Amino acid sequence: MILAGGRVDDLGVLTFSRPKSAVPFGGLYRIIDFPMSNLMHSGIKKIGILSQYKPFDLMEHIGGGESWDMRGRERFVTILPPFKGLSTSDWYKGTADAVYQNLDFLRNHRPELVLILSGDHIYKMDYQRIISYHTAVGADLTVAFARVPREGSHRFGLARMEENNDTGGKILDYVEKSEGSSYEWASLTVYVFSPYALFEALHENAKHQSHEFGRNIIPWLLANKYRVYGYKHHDYWGYARTLDEYWQTNMDLLGESCRIDIGSWQICTNLAHHRTRDRQPTLLGSSSSITDSLVHSGCIIHGTVSHSVLFPGVRVDPGAVVDHSVLFSDTIVKRDAVLRRTIADEGVTVGSRGQIGEAETGGLCVIGKDTRIPRGITIRTGVMVHPGLGPARFAKTTYERGETIQ
Q: How far apart are CA 104 and CA 193, in angstroms?
């Protein structure tokens, strides 16, 4: 069961029209491609995707699951939106309630185990290893954890485990997003449940007002003496909850010592999507310069691209500069415009001689989908531009840090 229906306000205009799980990533992919590919490589091919917030992009991307070899007699992907039925139901009130509303779906398939994943993290994991560990220790619930720095750890669910080995251990205490915790193992929102424990916990939780796995289900299981274990993930994990984290995770694809190796991870995506298919080869003009970047099919480059990620169909005109930026499909950067530390959504046009973003560290400029910025506009770091704006909406020639253009 993939929890894929939420919107994250911290990603701003990138999630105005799509859930976080469907946000493009890495020049060709969507964030949900990572758990989907992990499932495929782990041999797990009976999947329900819990979707709620503006699901069209996600549903169009997933299709029938063919891109991950999940369509067949014993293989499927089912999108599970909220519904009205014989009994009272409503929009999903939280992660636990989303699964609770679909218990009939689970019971119909009579699973030996239930694997519950977040659809918006970037990592590679063989789920069979955590499943084997869960079975070997006789757990009712096993949660995957990664070690995180003390600074900023309050944003996660944190556990104290028995330090028996590098694989994992029994969870001795768990706190959800606690400012004062000294624990260093953060939940990845990867849960392996024995069905009886999951069903009992969800039925009990349905009586209450809060319906979250981290805040409610795990503490209830611990308080009621269920066997709850932690499994340690020692490899890369991209959280990408904030714009800075999302940008940095894209930058982790680049450099001589890149932290994400898409090729070896064997990430699959929907190559039949209209934003990706039927693209011509990338064309590089005689004045082009590309350094340490990912540039995908259909791009036309006459300018300078450095340390950036370009999705299919991006155009960079002569004299234009794109530096430390992420440009979604069909973005156009016109002659002599400069983009630095910028994220541009699909179909953005930056007019000639525009100055977007700044080179120094700290802060990003983020431009919403299908926005057309007129020529000669300067937009400083830290400005967010809402989607769909035309030239007439840009009343000034310079926008300073912290402004929102809408």
A: 16
The amino acid that residue 134 corresponds to is: H
Q: Under DSSP, is residue 119 helix (H, G, I), strand (E, B) or coil?
A: coil
C-alpha closest to that of 317 among 301, 299, 298, 296:
301
Quick: pLDDT tens for 160-218: 999 778 899 999 999 987 777 888 899 999 999 999 999 999 999 998 888 899 889 99
Query: And the tokens for 326?
Result: 């992420």
Distance of CA 92 to the CA centre of its chain: 19
Of the pLDDT bands very low, low, confident and very high (cuts 50, 70, 90), residue 223 is very high
Nearest to 124 by CA among 39, 47, 50, 222: 39
The Cα–Cα gap between 309 and 229 comes to 39
d(CA 5, CA 50): 6
Tokens linked to 330: 């069909």
**Over 312-345, what HEC string results?**
CCCEECCCCEEECCEECCCCEECCCCEEECEEEC
Query: pTM for the full model?
Result: 0.94
Question: Token pair for residue 354?
Answer: 């525009």
* pLDDT value for 7: 64
Q: What is the distance between the alpha carbons of residues 350 and 367, in angstroms, rounded to a whole number?
A: 10
Under DSSP, the state recorded for 5 is -
Residue 355 CB neighbour total at 10 angstroms: 19
Which residues, in sequence order, are bridge partners of residue 378?
355, 398
Distances 370 to 25, 109, 328, 388, 390 between C-alpha atoms, Å: 18, 43, 11, 5, 9
- The mean predicted confidence, pLDDT, of the chain is 92
The token duo for 85 is 């039925």
- The yes-or-no verdict on residue 159 having pLDDT over 80 is yes
The residues near 38 (Cβ < 8 Å, ≥ 6 apart) are: 123, 124, 125, 126, 127
Provide the phi-psi class of 117: left if phi over 0, else alpha when psi is between -120 and 50, else beta.
beta
| C-beta separation of 160 from 172 below 8 A | yes
Residues 361/379, Cβ–Cβ less than 8 Å:
no
Alpha-carbon distance values, 351 to 320, 357, 386 (Å)? 10, 14, 16
φ and ψ at residue 61, rounded to 5 degrees = -70, -45
CA separation for the pair 3, 58 (Å, rounded): 12
